[in-house]
Amino acid sequence: MKLLTLMCLLCATGPVLGEWAVEEATIMGTTVHVEVWHPNTQIRQQGINKALEIMDHVNRLMSPYIEESQLSKINQFAHERPVSISTELFEVIRKSVDVAVLTKGAFDITYASVGHLYDYPKQTRPSDDKISQAKVLIDYKNMVLDKERQSVSFLRPGMKIDLGGIAKGYAVDRAVQALTDLGIRHAQVAAGGDMRMLGGRLDRPWRIGIRDPRKPGDIAVTLFLKDQALSTSGDYERSFSNGGTLYHHILDPGTGDSAREVSSVSILGPDAITTDSLSTSVFVLGIEKGLQLINGLESVEGIIIDRKGKFHYSEHFKEYR
Description:
The protein is α+β, with helices and mostly antiparallel strands. It folds into two domains: 19-61 and 165-319, ApbE-like domains (T-fold, Roll); 69-154, ApbE-like superfamily (T-fold, Orthogonal Bundle). The chain contains eight helices and 17 strands. It has an eight-stranded antiparallel sheet with strand order 1-2-6-7-10-15-16-17, with helices on one face. The chain has a three-stranded antiparallel sheet with strand order 3-5-4. The chain has a two-stranded antiparallel ribbon with strand order 8-9. A hairpin with a 4-residue loop joins strand 13 (251-252) and strand 14 (257-258). The longest helix has 22 residues, at 41-62. It is globular, with a radius of gyration of 19 Å. The two termini are 25 Å apart.
């Protein structure tokens, strides 16, 4: 799970404030926040309802915690036979492979082959032997995607996938597209630490605060954004300490253990599926390789906060402060 602290200034006054509508719901294991402006009350509410409906739909397709989800069916049967899936799920898995190639495996949805062995509510980590045995199953190249049949299969028994580093971003993008289709031009959709702004908050940018990873309630950086997506990955969610070592849910596919060079990564970009997957990728890559990746991509910026609290910016990130 990702958590992003939001600070949104009410930039309008008088009657126009009545034309904003805000709703929140618990979906995809996190808080989903939808904020919409439109002069027509019916369209405002229609937009919010549609956005929340889409988020719930994506969750029912892609959650590993819902036994009947298509993703759960993949994990149950893909090692035996190709599993036919929806266009939406196929698109997200295909995108995950693209990101895996881009990041040389730092992003790999088959990390779940080890990830499912961790129990964060019970604060238990699998033994080194269990991690070592399961780690050999982490390799996106052992997934077979058949575009014609729209199916997925695994080459090795025991493989599992989890879309926790990309599905919320996809859902946010789908929700924003639905709002755009309704003629809405000013909105914000957030799912935990993944958010996207449609336009500004009327005549001004959205003011967004990124939380300090070591001081809950404090803001590390404030950004001013329009028509952009922002995702934050941090080691403070779904985590526990054991013997002085912090274990969290952002696993390094190369080790099967928590990535530990940084505490927080925030990525700015054109869409949430990109920022969601890249914030996870850069967290795993660390400072040097992470900044190299960000600086080599068009329309993508980022900030990394290391374990000592030092900030590391991409080339043009400060333009948004």
